[in-house]
């Protein structure tokens, strides 16, 4: 043995011929000297000492760590190129006084200079008689007849050819681990919990159940899985240098401390190492690569780079970004309200279970994704994928792994203590610093006043609610914050049953179901609509709800929340004190004359409804055709401002009838329906314009547009009104009940002319809603409208008969 060590010392860089001679001399000693008997010790202080394999391809030795000087790991290393293929205690490092000993009892033990046991093979008293490093690199303990322990069965972070990686084995590196699943799937996990890579087998014959899959690396560079139930092994991955270099190349599969799994090729006898396969192509997709709150990105050389979300954070270790970031001010120490920091083109990695599938994923818009997180005390961050799905991930555990890339469509939000201090781009940093120096005191002054204000506001807020017992509960608190944030609240059916006192007070019957009055826990009065005939699943429903709730306008009724539970589908709206417009237009004048709207109110309602519709059609992100404009769907708040309701609901009802519209399947209300509804022509926003025109006619005349009476010369109201208008008798059209008051004829004229343009039979003749608004506001001149009913259109007469005959609302 001593002789052998001398030999090895000489062999440092031997010429080929000498090396051959040495090989032969080693071979002579092989059988005798590579068997380690119990009681033998390997010392860290002597790095030249080793336990070699027969042909010295591999050896077990102490290996100095490059990162921390004078610490050593006991490792099986390859003699050429020196990749470490196994280490005692998975890279447990000892100091100069450390040693590895095969104890007389048969257990292998790694001991630190302090005398502390860092690792033990736990093989005492099972008859271990020797230890050997085999040519394959396997380090085995044997009882004389068979192997009782081996490094191949207890791998650390590497697999070499001829090694079998079985079910239940694991490669570890830091917090990362690699497993083979019963299904044959290969998985990479962070902290034994988050699986960030899961690759299934690509079977041509699917449905094969594996019994005991084994992963192996072939020396030519193939990763394959074999199993008794498979007729031949299945290739999982090819090394890109497949079969190159023959025996001169050693390939290993290694889990790096960066959480990635790679196949490396070592050219034997040289320092050349190549990566020829990698599991996670995008290093930033490795969960936790940049530590907690760390944000991964790429530098100009495409190397992954770790940073913090914003100036509200600092690195835990300024010299090592991978250790993650921490808040400069903890959320609980925050003065004033916590705010959401917005990170564009960034996501927080959304692997389960850190983002549990339910109930932490919502289908909502970007701003609601931020608001929802802000409102929930359990939420730390949220990510809106913004990839068209509308998915919002709410992060409730406090390990957050970020990824920022200009190519990412996602927008992320993270709770911070104000003031929000976004990262400046590197090129701007100096400029910013200069400004800070010059205007430092100004900024400080502004900051302190903001903080003071926040503190005051926070105090006020607490003071306001200190005596409201109902507000104490978490759910009420949550609901109020959520309401304020603009995200729709998800109610349970029970909650809504309670708030409506068992659906007691019916406000009305809309086209989609009955509406009930209710009071939420925070005393907000609401209108709860119990939808009927909604066949959509929960997902689809939530998507529509998120569209509706992201639509905010002064002249649109606001959606507060929803319930989707079993077959129950309910919508919760803000309550409108004065109900719907029809109650004021078509009243019995003797009994309820007090409810009559005066002229100014009527004009403002017409203008408000037009503005609401303009927003729906032209200004909001997901344009909505209402499809059911009528006085019943124009609600009035306490100041008689018009608010359009029930928008977005047409999409909720079964879309299947769109192709085969019949009079019975049409969702809209007859009398207000544009002719194209009945002629199976495309429905566009111009169809709403038509309905709106009919409503305007009713606002002016105070009678239903389809009413036929002696006063209208037995003609449809719209036709009669146009005839009166042509005769120059505008006064004749106006609601007679208004005559006792001042009616501004100029405004009436504008209203009526706009109305006639709106109810043109040809959709292309009708103005857009924004044009209508301009007409009413008087900022554009209105041309004389042609007669609404065009003789040239073939389908018109039939339709008008239908409409006129219909007595339905
Ligand atoms: C060791 O090397 C010799 C010569 O290269 C070879 O004949 C022998 O099979 C090798 N032994 C093992 C165990 O690989
Ligand atoms: C080993 O002992 C040294 C002091 O002798 C100590 O600094 C080091 O932390 C110990 N290593 C381990 C892994 O316990
Ligand atoms: C070695 O272990 C094997 C399996 O554990 C056992 O069958 C065999 O009897 C043992 N041999 C000796 C010499 O103890
Ligand atoms: C890792 O998991 C353990 C237990 O499963 C947990 O206590 C620990 O907090 C986790 N580490 C991090 C950084 O979350
Ligand atoms: C296996 O991996 C595939 C992705 O390659 C995944 O879709 C599948 O769910 C996984 N199967 C199991 C049992 O985890
Ligand atoms: C499976 O392998 C076949 C042939 O190699 C390939 O055409 C197919 O795209 C693969 N399927 C998947 C899901 O990778
Ligand atoms: C595989 O296992 C599943 C569940 O154990 C079983 O339902 C299925 O029939 C099995 N398939 C085959 C091909 O054996």
UniProtKB/TrEMBL annotation:
GO CC annotations on file: plasma membrane
Membrane topology designation: Single-pass type I membrane protein
EC assignment: 2.7.11.1
InterPro entries: Bulb-type_lectin_dom, Bulb-type_lectin_dom_sf, Kinase-like_dom_sf, Prot_kinase_dom, Protein_kinase_ATP_BS, S_locus_glycoprot_dom, Ser/Thr_kinase_AS, SRK-like_kinase
Entry's localization field: Cell membrane
Domain Bulb-type lectin: 27-154, 156-276
Keywords: ATP-binding, Cell membrane, Disulfide bond, EGF-like domain, Glycoprotein, Kinase, Lectin, Membrane, Nucleotide-binding, Receptor, Repeat, Serine/threonine-protein kinase, Signal, Transferase, Transmembrane, Transmembrane helix
UniProt similarity note: Belongs to the protein kinase superfamily. Ser/Thr protein kinase family.
Name of this protein: Receptor-like serine/threonine-protein kinase
Organism from which the protein derives: Arachis duranensis (Wild peanut)
Gene name, Swiss-Prot/TrEMBL: LOC107467784
């Amino acid at each position: 043995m001593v002789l052998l060590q001398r030999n090895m010392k000489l062999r440092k860089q031997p010429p080929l011929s000498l090396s051959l001679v040495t090989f032969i001399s080693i071979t002579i000693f092989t059988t005798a000297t590579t068997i380690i008997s119990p009681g033998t010790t390997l010392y860290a202080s002597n790095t030249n000492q080793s336990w070699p394999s027969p042909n010295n391809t591999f050896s077990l030795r102490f290996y100095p760590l490059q990162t921390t000087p004078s610490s050593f790991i006991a490792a099986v290393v390859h003699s050429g190129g020196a990749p470490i293929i196994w280490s005692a205690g998975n890279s447990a490092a000892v100091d100069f006084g450390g040693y590895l000993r095969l104890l007389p009892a048969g257990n292998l033990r790694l001991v630190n200079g302090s005398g502390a046991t860092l690792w033990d093979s736990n093989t005492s008293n099972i008859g271990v008689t020797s230890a050997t490093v085999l040519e394959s690199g396997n380090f085995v303990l044997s009882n004389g007849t068979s192997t009782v322990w081996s490094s191949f069965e207890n791998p650390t972070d590497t697999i070499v050819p001829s090694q079998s990686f079985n079910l239940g084995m694991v490669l570890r590196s830091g917090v990362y681990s690699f497993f083979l699943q019963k299904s044959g799937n290969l998985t990479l996990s962070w902290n034994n919990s988050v699986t960030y890579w899961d690759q299934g087998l690509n079977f041509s014959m699917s449905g094969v159940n594996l019994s005991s899959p084994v992963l192996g690396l072939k020396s030519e560079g193939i990763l394959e899985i074999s199993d008794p139930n498979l007729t031949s092994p299945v290739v999982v991955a090819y090394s890109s240098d497949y079969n190159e270099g023959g025996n001169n190349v050693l390939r290993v599969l290694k889990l790096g401390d960066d959480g990635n799994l790679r196949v490396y090729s070592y050219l034997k006898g040289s320092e050349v190492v190549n990566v020829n396969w990698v599991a996670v192509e995008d290093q930033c997709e490795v969960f936790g690569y940049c530590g907690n709150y760390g944000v991964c990105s790429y530098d100009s050389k495409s190397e992954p780079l770790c940073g913090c979300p914003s100036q509200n954070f600092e690195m835990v270790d300024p010299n090592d970004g991978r250790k993650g970031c921490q808040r400069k001010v903890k959320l609980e120490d925050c003065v004033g309200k916590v705010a959401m920091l917005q990170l564009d083109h960034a996501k927080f990695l959304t692997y389960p279970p850190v983002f549990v599938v339910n109930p932490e994923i919502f289908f909502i818009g970007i701003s609601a994704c931020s608001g929802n997180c802000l409102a929930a005390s359990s939420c730390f961050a949220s990510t809106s994928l913004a990839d068209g799905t509308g998915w919002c991930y709410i992060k409730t555990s406090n390990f957050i792994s970020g990824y920022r890339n200009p190519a990412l469509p996602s927008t992320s939000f993270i709770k911070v203590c104000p003031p929000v201090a976004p990262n400046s781009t590197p090129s701007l940093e100096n400029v910013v610093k200069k400004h800070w120096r010059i205007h430092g005191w100004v900024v400080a002054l502004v900051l302190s006043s903001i903080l003071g204000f926040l503190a005051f506001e926070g105090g006020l807020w607490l003071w306001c609610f200190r005596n409201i017992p109902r507000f104490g509960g978490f759910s009420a608190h949550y609901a109020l914050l959520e309401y304020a944030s603009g995200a729709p609240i998800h109610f349970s059916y029970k909650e809504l049953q309670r708030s409506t006192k068992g659906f007691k007070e019916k406000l009305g019957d809309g086209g989609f179901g009955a509406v009930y009055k209710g009071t939420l826990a925070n005393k907000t009065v609401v209108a709860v609509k119990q939808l009927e005939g909604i066949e959509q699943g929960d997902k689809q429903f939530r998507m529509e709800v998120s569209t509706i709730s992201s639509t905010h306008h002064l002249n649109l009724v606001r959606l507060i929340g929803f319930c989707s539970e079993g077959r129950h589908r309910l919508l919760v709206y803000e309550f409108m004190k004065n109900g719907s417009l029809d109650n004021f237009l078509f009243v019995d004048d003797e009994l309820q004359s007090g409810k009559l709207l005066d002229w100014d109110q009527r004009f403002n309602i017409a203008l408000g409804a037009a503005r609401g519709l303009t927003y729906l059609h032209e200004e909001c992100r997901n344009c909505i055709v209402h499809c059911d404009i009528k006085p019943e769907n124009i609600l009035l708040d306490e100041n008689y401002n018009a608010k359009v309701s029930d928008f977005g609901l047409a999409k909720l009802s079964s879309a299947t009838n769109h192709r085969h519209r019949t009079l019975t399947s049409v969702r809209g209300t007859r009398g207000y329906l544009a002719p194209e509804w009945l002629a199976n022509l495309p429905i566009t926003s111009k169809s709403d314009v038509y309905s709106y025109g009919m409503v305007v006619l009713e606002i002016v005349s105070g009678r239903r547009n389809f009413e036929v009476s002696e006063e209208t010369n037995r003609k449809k109201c719209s036709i009669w009104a146009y005839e009166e208008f042509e005769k120059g008798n505008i006064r004749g059209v106006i609601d007679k009940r208004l005559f006792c008051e001042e009616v501004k004829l100029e405004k009436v004229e504008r209203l009526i002319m706009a109305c006639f343009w709106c109810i043109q039979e040809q959709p292309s003749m009708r103005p857009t809603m924004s044009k209508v608004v301009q007409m009413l506001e008087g900022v554009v001149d209105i041309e004389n409208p042609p007669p609404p009913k065009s003789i040239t259109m073939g389908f018109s007469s039939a339709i008008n008969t239908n409409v006129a005959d219909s007595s339905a609302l």
